[in-house]
Amino acid sequence: MSAAPRPETSPRMEPFRLRGANFNLLVLRLLDPRPEAVVPAIGDQFRRAPGFLRFAPVVLGLDDIALPAHEVDFAGLIAGLRELTIVPIGTTGGSPELRNAAMALGLPPVRSVGGREEEAPLAAAAAAAPVAPEPAAPPPPPPGMARPTMIVEQPVRAGQRVYAAGGDLIVTATVNAGGEVIADGNIHVYGALRGRAIAGGGNNAEARVFAQNFDPELISIAGYYAVREGLTGAPIGKAVQVRLTGERMRFDPI
Q: Is the pTM of this model over 0.90?
């Protein structure tokens, strides 16, 4: 009696894949690292600009911290930020001791794409296993070549985030309240801007924001920002160009 034929088996699918990717992350510079100072201040921004940073992954900037690592309450900071539905995922800058203290609580150092390698944290240097090098950042466009531009023709809804990496963003419709548009370059909104607009990623202080109907929840250029209640001198509801002059925002009618 012959044995029954064995069923054909399909090749096993690989359970995962790793690939390099670039993401737009906000850096929360800790000018005062005390949880009792930082957390209430961010909570106040939440009240003035609903949705500001809510569920956003952030990197903690440590360059401005002059305190020794043992005096920085990273556990309190992490707990306080998470209570505000902010998700700290890592750190940038600061001394090796500060980075070690944060990494012990699950916040590893994060290197910006194309940035310099930070000194390896002392505690991790001995245990770190060799890893494949990260893919090189794409070279900047040659002089005279236009930067890439993203064009969005549909309204940006509440809770939606649109990011134009490495270039400008043009929205031909409305950015609704609760929506967010982000660009490394300029932002043009040919409808109403009622949500949040963040231009000049990577500290591009020359970036500008243009809106036909200017009524945002929050506006930011190169890390400088203003919320709706702080726009008392801006022509709300009008066509406006926003730019930086030094460290001040300027709102010019178009």
A: no
Q: How far apart are CA 89 and CA 178, in angstroms?
A: 23
Contacts of 100 (CB under 8 A, 6+ apart): 69, 121, 122, 123, 124
Show contacts of 83-87: CB within 8 Å, 24+ apart: 83/39, 84/39, 84/42, 84/43, 84/46, 84/53, 84/54, 85/54, 85/55, 86/28, 86/42, 86/53, 86/54, 86/55, 86/56, 86/58, 87/55, 87/56, 87/57, 87/58
Per DSSP, the three-state class of 94 is coil
Contact 227, 244 (CB under 8 A): no
Interatomic CA distance for residues 197 and 168, integer angstroms: 12
Q: CA angle, 13 as apex, 12 and 19 as ends, to 5°? A: 145
Query: Per-residue pLDDT for the chain (254 aa), expressed as one digit of tens each?
Result: 555 555 555 556 667 655 555 566 678 889 999 999 999 988 887 766 656 666 778 889 999 999 999 999 999 999 999 898 888 888 988 999 999 999 888 888 886 654 443 433 333 333 333 333 433 444 555 555 556 899 999 999 988 888 888 899 999 999 999 899 999 899 999 999 999 899 987 678 899 999 999 999 888 888 787 887 777 778 899 999 999 988 788 999 98
- Domains present along the chain, CATH in parentheses: 26-111 (3.30.70.260), 149-253 (2.160.20.70)
- Strands lying side by side in the sheet with 87-92: 26-29, 57-61, 87-92
